[in-house]
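Translate structure to sequence.
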């Protein structure tokens, strides 16, 4: 008889629950937060797209389409979705290797995979990714983002940058003589503005003096927008010799693209397996980590991870139909949303509508946006993305944590994120198995009431495939003349089939030496496996006893082997 499948997750967006009791106060707060986040998202969407090797409008369209769907269909009250810095390196590599059309197909396939993950209630599994892996690949991506922006920041005259880390360094080094001082000045000024401009999330809420009030008022305008507007104005008025969105891409269209299905074939889909898995895995991890951070920032219901994954799936399937790139939850924009007063998904929907209005009304203004300014903004994003203090704290943690974090970081930088996560998970599993194996022990027990010829060992921990070596070595610890070996198992919390096989082999080895094997005080899980496997029948029911004391009274012992000398007192 086949086992019934677990129930699938019910598709119910958080928006439906949030609208219960929705009043004017919440609407005003959500509209204000949505407008703020929309302004913040505009320069970031363009910057992320350009850094990913696609046109700037691809980032804006992603923020509009995916951002709206993630908020409207998601499982979080305040999550803001759109293009993310974590995807820059991944998208750039896919475009370089497979082309833009295949990026769109990979993103749509990843959307299907994300939806299925949420449908089958796999959202909680993402939480099992060790934090050392998350920090390792996040820091690695931050390094790669920073490196990829040096070309535009310095205004270098180079061909299209390769995706490989060492190749990028070689290209940058070979073209350093083409540095554009004007581009460096614009990039540095933009970076300084973003760093020094007051941040809304750091402003005090208590009554303050005049200067502090001015800073708090200034913080309502994001520093990224100030830097972008200032740099664009300078380029326009002074006709500065730097590369702009207009000179490289020809500007931004003043309308959403028409719906278009990319050409699809199963042969192509098979080749895109790794990019698809990479986009889906990174999207799941980033979105659910972001949602968990947001849960702790305001008095809102905890997010539903499975519903969030389903919404991410729909968004990533739909965005490529409009020329978009992969999308996920974004921490910076989500934090801005919460700090600005957003409390329901309506704020995220307003954020998407704000971007749409900007595209329809002000797209031609982007012609003179200097790429050096966007590079300066992204350098700030990369710095904020990395958890650099974790490197300084490594000495406080054990070798396992340090190896996984540094291994994931180095692999992300040198190879790619997929290999890095795979390596990190393998290392985490290997170290976990090793650690659990070291926790298992076989301890001799010295009892005053122990009859001659009997020895007792206590099993402690989990007897699984990583710890069977200690059972295999047990016969060597048993002295000649022993009549019975008693394994006290009340501290054995887990027994797997490999551990069971080790016990069966121990029984056969002892039987050849004329020694009985007795199992005492066996817990429920090990006892169930011992009975189901038939080992209890082989051992004899009389040799599985409730306590060690029962062994001395009830269990018959075979005679000692002829070659074993009698025990002398």
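Result:
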């Amino acid at each position: 008889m086949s086992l019934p499948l677990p129930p699938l997750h019910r598709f119910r967006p958080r928006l439906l629950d949030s609208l219960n009791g929705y009043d004017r106060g919440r609407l005003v707060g959500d509209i204000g937060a949505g407008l703020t986040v929309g302004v913040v998202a505009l320069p970031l969407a363009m910057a992320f797209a350009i850094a990913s090797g696609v046109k700037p409008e691809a980032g804006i369209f992603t923020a509009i389409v995916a951002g709206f769907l993630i908020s409207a269909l998601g499982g979080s009250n305040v999550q803001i979705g759109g293009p993310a810095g974590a995807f820059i390196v991944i998208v750039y590599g896919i475009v370089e290797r497979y082309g833009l059309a295949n990026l769109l197909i990979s993103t749509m396939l990843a959307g299907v995979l994300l939806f299925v993950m949420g449908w089958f209630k796999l959202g909680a599994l993402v939480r099992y990714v060790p934090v050392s892996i998350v920090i390792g690949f996040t820091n690695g991506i931050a390094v790669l983002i920073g490196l990829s922006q040096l070309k535009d920041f310095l205004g270098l005259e180079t061909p299209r940058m390769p995706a490989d880390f060492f190749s990028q360094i070689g290209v940058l080094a070979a073209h350093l003589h083409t540095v554009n001082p004007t581009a460096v000045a614009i990039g540095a000024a933009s970076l300084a503005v973003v760093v020094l401009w007051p941040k809304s999330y750091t402003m005090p809420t208590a009554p303050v003096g005049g200067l502090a009030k001015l800073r708090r008022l200034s913080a309502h305008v994001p520093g990224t927008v100030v830097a972008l507007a200032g740099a664009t104005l300078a380029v326009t008025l002074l006709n500065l010799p730097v590369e702009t969105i207009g000179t490289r891409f020809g500007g931004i269209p003043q309308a959403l693209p028409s719906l278009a299905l990319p050409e699809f074939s199963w042969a192509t889909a098979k080749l895109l397996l790794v990019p698809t898995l990479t986009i889906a895995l990174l999207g799941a991890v980033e979105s659910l980590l972001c949602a968990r951070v947001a849960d702790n920032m305001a008095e809102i219901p905890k997010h539903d991870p499975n519903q969030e994954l389903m919404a991410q799936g729909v968004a990533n399937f739909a965005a490529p139909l409009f020329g978009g790139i992969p999308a996920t939850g974004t921490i910076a924009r989500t934090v801005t949303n919460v700090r600005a007063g957003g409390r329901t998904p309506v704020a995220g929907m307003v954020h998407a509508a704000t971007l749409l209005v900007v595209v329809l009304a002000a797209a031609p203004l982007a012609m003179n946006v200097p790429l050096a300014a966007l590079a300066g903004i992204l350098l700030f994003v990369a710095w904020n993305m990395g958890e650099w203090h974790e490197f300084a704290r490594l000495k406080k943690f054990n070798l396992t944590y340090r190896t996984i974090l540094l291994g994931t970081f180095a692999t992300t930088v040198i190879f790619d994120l997929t290999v890095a996560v795979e390596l990190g998970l393998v290392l985490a599993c290997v170290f976990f198995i090793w650690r659990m194996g070291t926790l298992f022990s076989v301890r001799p027990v010295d009892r005053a009431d122990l009859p001659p010829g009997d020895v007792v060992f206590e099993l402690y921990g989990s007897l699984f495939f990583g710890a069977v070596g200690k059972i295999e070595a047990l016969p060597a610890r048993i002295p000649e003349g022993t009549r019975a070996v008693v394994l006290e198992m009340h501290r054995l919390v887990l027994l797997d089939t490999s551990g069971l096989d080790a016990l069966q082999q121990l029984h056969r080895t002892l039987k050849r030496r004329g020694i009985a094997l007795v199992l005492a005080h066996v817990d429920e899980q090990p006892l169930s496996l011992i009975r189901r496997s038939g080992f209890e029948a082989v051992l004899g029911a009389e040799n599985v006893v409730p306590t060690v004391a029962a062994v001395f009274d009830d269990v018959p012992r075979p005679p000692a082997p002829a070659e074993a000398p009698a025990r002398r007192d």
